[in-house]
Amino acid sequence: MNKMNVYQDLMRIVQDADRVKYDEMLSAYTFTKTGGEADVLVLPESYTEVQEIVRYTAREGIPVTVLGNGSNVIIRDGGIRGVVINLTRLSAIRLEGDHIVAQSGAAIIDVSRFALKHSLSGMEFACGIPGSIGGALYMNAGAYGGETADVLDHALVVDCSGKLLQLNHRDLQLGYRNSAISRNGYIALEGTFALTPGHEPEIKAEMDRLTYLREMKQPLEYPSCGSVFKRPPGHFAGKLIQDSGLQGTRIGGVEVSKKHAGFMVNIDHGTATDYINLIHHVQKTVKAKFNVDLETEVKIIGESRKL
């Protein structure tokens, strides 16, 4: 792949030099502040642009990686080959009756605040989730007993050929941290959420309660990728890690949080390799002590740095 040729082709699609970049460091686009270079990064601002980019890359056989706001992803230090589509410019939120329509680049927290402003209940659980709507649709994000599946009515996606598809709740097949979007390689463009009219003071009180719990329990003072592991059947990942004596364990600049064992924090210029090595160490230790396999919730993508 000739990066300059791809750059020029994408420029013809988006016609904005500020929205196409090559050899772009992806550490600026992730919550962990880690990640190597993207061959070419493009930031579309319309659904048509997304479709055209997908059609172009499919026609040319160029690999595509979709990136939201990078809150639950680790990008390896070798970066990502091909084209990275960053959807954060698609961030509009609008009201349609008792429904909220949010584009994939909108922050989930902003959608929950928008719901509060319009006295709509149902998004309170999302008030502390740092991800984007696209990520929430992709992995059925949830917290504090609620999840995206509880309120999502339908979604608009782009398939691998660039075709727009509207998927209803049943089509989306939302499960624990997965969906038809992730399984089929779709790109989420927007979600429509069916909410319930409520009372603003009560909605705010619940959001304040959940925010307090999050601030008390989670290491928000450091860069992190959020909850690292999925909840294993019959267990809690954080409890297993804590009972394995792993809190405070450090590899390079990354540490198992002393505040919440389910988190790994970048405390001193850690790298993606540090994160991945620490993840493997935690998995190996918990397996040896409790015979439980910890599966990552965080998505690990990209290539290892060549020696």
TrEMBL record:
<dbReference type="GO" id="GO:0005829">
    <property type="term" value="C:cytosol"/>
</dbReference>
<dbReference type="InterPro" id="IPR006094">
    <property type="entry name" value="Oxid_FAD_bind_N"/>
</dbReference>
<keyword id="KW-0963">Cytoplasm</keyword>
<keyword id="KW-0560">Oxidoreductase</keyword>
<keyword id="KW-0274">FAD</keyword>
<dbReference type="GO" id="GO:0009252">
    <property type="term" value="P:peptidoglycan biosynthetic process"/>
</dbReference>
<keyword id="KW-0961">Cell wall biogenesis/degradation</keyword>
<dbReference type="InterPro" id="IPR036635">
    <property type="entry name" value="MurB_C_sf"/>
</dbReference>
<dbReference type="InterPro" id="IPR011601">
    <property type="entry name" value="MurB_C"/>
</dbReference>
<comment type="pathway">
    <text>Cell wall biogenesis; peptidoglycan biosynthesis.</text>
</comment>
<keyword id="KW-0285">Flavoprotein</keyword>
<keyword id="KW-0521">NADP</keyword>
<dbReference type="InterPro" id="IPR016166">
    <property type="entry name" value="FAD-bd_PCMH"/>
</dbReference>
<dbReference type="GO" id="GO:0071949">
    <property type="term" value="F:FAD binding"/>
</dbReference>
<keyword id="KW-0133">Cell shape</keyword>
<protein>
    <recommendedName>
        <fullName>UDP-N-acetylenolpyruvoylglucosamine reductase</fullName>
        <ecNumber>1.3.1.98</ecNumber>
    </recommendedName>
</protein>
<dbReference type="GO" id="GO:0071555">
    <property type="term" value="P:cell wall organization"/>
</dbReference>
<dbReference type="Pfam" id="PF01565">
    <property type="entry name" value="FAD_binding_4"/>
</dbReference>
<keyword id="KW-0573">Peptidoglycan synthesis</keyword>
<keyword id="KW-0132">Cell division</keyword>
<comment type="similarity">
    <text>Belongs to the MurB family.</text>
</comment>
<dbReference type="GO" id="GO:0008360">
    <property type="term" value="P:regulation of cell shape"/>
</dbReference>
<dbReference type="GO" id="GO:0008762">
    <property type="term" value="F:UDP-N-acetylmuramate dehydrogenase activity"/>
</dbReference>
<dbReference type="InterPro" id="IPR036318">
    <property type="entry name" value="FAD-bd_PCMH-like_sf"/>
</dbReference>
<dbReference type="Pfam" id="PF02873">
    <property type="entry name" value="MurB_C"/>
</dbReference>
<feature type="active site" description="Proton donor">
    <location>
        <position position="227"/>
    </location>
</feature>
<feature type="domain" description="FAD-binding PCMH-type">
    <location>
        <begin position="34"/>
        <end position="198"/>
    </location>
</feature>
<feature type="active site">
    <location>
        <position position="297"/>
    </location>
</feature>
<dbReference type="GO" id="GO:0051301">
    <property type="term" value="P:cell division"/>
</dbReference>
<keyword id="KW-0131">Cell cycle</keyword>
<dbReference type="InterPro" id="IPR016167">
    <property type="entry name" value="FAD-bd_PCMH_sub1"/>
</dbReference>
<dbReference type="InterPro" id="IPR016169">
    <property type="entry name" value="FAD-bd_PCMH_sub2"/>
</dbReference>
<feature type="active site">
    <location>
        <position position="177"/>
    </location>
</feature>
<comment type="function">
    <text>Cell wall formation.</text>
</comment>
<dbReference type="InterPro" id="IPR003170">
    <property type="entry name" value="MurB"/>
</dbReference>
